[in-house]
Specification:
Layout lengths: L1 H11 L4 H21 L12 H10 L2 H20 L1 H4 L6 H79 L7 H27 L3 E4 H15 L5 E6 L6 E4 L3 H15 L7 E7 L3 E9 L5 H6 L13 H12 L3 E7 L2 E9 L6
Helix pairs in contact: 2-3, 2-4, 3-4, 3-6, 4-6, 6-7, 8-9, 9-11
Length: 355
């Protein structure tokens, strides 16, 4: 009866594991009691005791299922003690002992097989879940990329018109004092647009290049000094081989610089500097950013870089794009808490040396 209830409840209501385990134990005791009355270990129908074991390893956590298995095996051992009540001839004792041992071995094998298939099923479900999350992220990145391309296209025409106006203003004599700072800042905007076009062309044509670790370090320092001049950043190099090579396209440096700038933004207003460590070993390029954690917790760090989600300072788009870019080159990005700090670790595989 309890087995039928379990099957029915599993279709509609998720019962607590302890309750399901209790019902299976009751089944084990009830079935063993019936078999004890009708022949004990000599009863050929004792194979029915495998049903609770199979159900336990199908629907219960491993700890509860193991408990049901042990109780079932112990109940079979008790059946041997009841044999003298049914049979007074010792000629069949070895056969009955063999039946009990066979039951225990069969129960163990069935348990191992079911546990293995449950593990495989769990792994497959996790893989499917990760695939769905990756597809969702890719769809979001595609939408963001489409919007960025449209924005760059729409900005190009006003930028050209503004450049003509600035050139006309520069031709006036004397030129206003405020004009030169505007020209310099607008030149930076134009350079960013040209850089974006070059990166887009490289990605579209799948052009890959070799980036030396030493050049990556210098480029990151230059970008941070221009875009976050107020940030207190300490740069460290540990066992850095300047000639170590990373094989990637033009999106690598923007992705790395975005990760460093996110660390600078998170530590904005803090007296503690942002520590950026760059190192290489025989196979990997490592970039580590250490900054104060502020309001970030472990739950937020768990999904950071995997999906777009609203926050106080945006939607985490930069982290998502950077994470996807690093993964494209066979690397990984991870965020973790270490005391009062957030540590961001970027790992990229090094290209094989030509030597």
């Amino acid at each position: 009866m309890s087995l039928l209830l379990i099957l029915l409840y599993r279709r509609s209501v998720r019962l607590a594991p302890w309750l399901v385990g209790l019902m299976l134990v009751i089944d084990v005791i009830a079935l063993n009691s019936v078999i004890a009355i009708y022949g004990a270990a000599s009863n050929p129908f004792n194979a029915v005791l495998l049903i609770p074991v199979v159900l336990a390893f199908t629907v219960l956590p491993l700890v509860y299922a193991g408990g049901v298995l042990l109780i079932s095996a112990a109940a079979q051992g008790i059946q041997l003690l009841l044999l003298p009540l049914h049979y007074h001839v010792s000629g069949m004792e070895e056969h009955y002992y063999s039946m009990v041992i066979s039951f225990v071995i069969t129960s163990g094998l069935v348990s191992l097989v079911i546990s293995y298939f449950r593990y495989q099923l769990t792994q497959r479900e996790q893989a499917i879940r990760q695939l769905r999350e990756r597809q969702l992220r890719d769809e979001q990145l595609l939408a963001i990329g489409t919007a960025a391309a449209q924005l760059a296209h729409e900005v190009a025409t006003p930028a050209q018109s503004l450049r003509l106006l600035l050139e006309e203003a520069q031709e006036q004599q004397p030129s206003p004092a405020w004009l030169q700072p505007i020209v310099e800042q607008f030149s930076r905007i134009e350079e960013h647009l040209r850089s974006w076009r070059r990166i887009a062309d490289d990605v579209r044509e799948q052009r890959m290049s070799v980036y030396f670790a030493g050049n990556i370090c210098q480029t990151l320092q230059h970008i941070i000094s221009l875009n976050r001049p107020e940030a207190n950043v300490v740069w460290e190099q540990q066992s850095l081989k300047s000639q170590a090579k990373v094989y990637a396209d033009a999106t690598l440096v923007p992705a790395l610089s975005s990760i460093v700038m996110n660390g600078c933004d998170a530590a904005n207003g803090e007296s503690t500097p942002v520590l950026v460590t760059i190192a290489t070993n025989l196979k990997e390029f490592n970039l580590t950013i250490k900054n104060n954690k502020k309001t970030m917790d472990e739950e937020q760090l768990a999904w950071l870089g995997t999906r777009v989600s609203a926050s106080e300072k945006g939607f985490g788009v930069g982290a998502v794009v950077s994470n996807a870019t690093i993964e494209k080159f066979g690397g990984s990005v991870s965020w973790q808490l270490q005391g009062e700090h957030i540590v961001t670790k970027v790992i990229l595989p090094l290209a094989e040396s030509d030597e």
